[in-house]
Amino acid sequence: MKRTALAIRHLAFEDLGILAPLLNERGYTVRYLEAGVDAIDSAAVTTADLSVVLGGPIGVYDTDRYPFLTQEKAAIGARLRQNKPTLGICLGAQLMAEALGATVAATGKVEIGYGELTLTEQGRASALRHIGAIPVLHWHGDQFAIPEGASRLAQTQGFPNQAFSLGPCILGLQFHLEADHRQIERWLIGHAHELASHQLDIPAIRADAARHGAMLELAARAVIGEWLDQLPFG
């Protein structure tokens, strides 16, 4: 059965990555809405079978500088109120958390590069268990609180809230399971200023992508595949 997947993209190279072929394999027709370019229409967002809200280098609180966020937040909120399958990644998860009533704020620090997660008890019982000790790609400085009623699934030493789920349909990830390690150079170029300003080790990120990318891709497919397979479409 053909289903529709709508991805909201904030930055050209932060796309669905390895999730695009996975969605195609499971019979989804994928289309993008380009934030800041396309109108993010609540009707379109709520009628898709699946919505994926992708990452970006702005904050949920930046509505004065980026007015399109107001419309985007309204559309995401409308979808979540209908409890429709929604996956948020990084900024996407932060937008979802805020729409669910949780606080999102800058931390004054960044977590960028590959690093392991520590799964909570609920995380170990979730699809995230497929990650195990494989380092995932982090690229964030803001932090969401866990929405009321949601399960906290993962943490790192510097960022205690790395993932949440609310029932079977809503999953928010602070980290980037979708990123294609074969395309890491696009990230290193696109975020050059941020990397330089924080004096981060670009060759180390590049090397970690090569070292961990293939294993992470298999684990990410298992995580998202299991999540997709248990969605209650009716």
Please render the helix and strand layout as text.
Blueprint: E1 3-9, H1 19-25, E2 28-34, H2 42-47, E3 50-53, H3 68-81, E4 86-89, H4 91-99, E5 104-115, E6 118-119, H5 121-124, E7 136-144, E8 151-155, E9 163-166, E10 170-173, H6 184-190, H7 192-197, H8 202-229
Parallel strand pairs: 1-2, 1-3, 3-4, 4-10
Antiparallel strand pairs: 5-7, 6-8, 8-9, 9-10
- Name of the CATH homologous superfamily: Class I glutamine amidotransferase (GATase) domain
Average pLDDT value? 97
Run of helices and strands? EHEHEHEHEEHEEEEHHH
Any idea what the shape is? globular
**Order of neighbouring strands in the sheet with most strands:** 2-1-3-4-10-9-8-6
Binned strand content = 15-25%
Instruction: Output the number of helix runs.
Output: 8
Structural class estimated from helices and strands: alpha/beta
| Share in helix | 25-40%
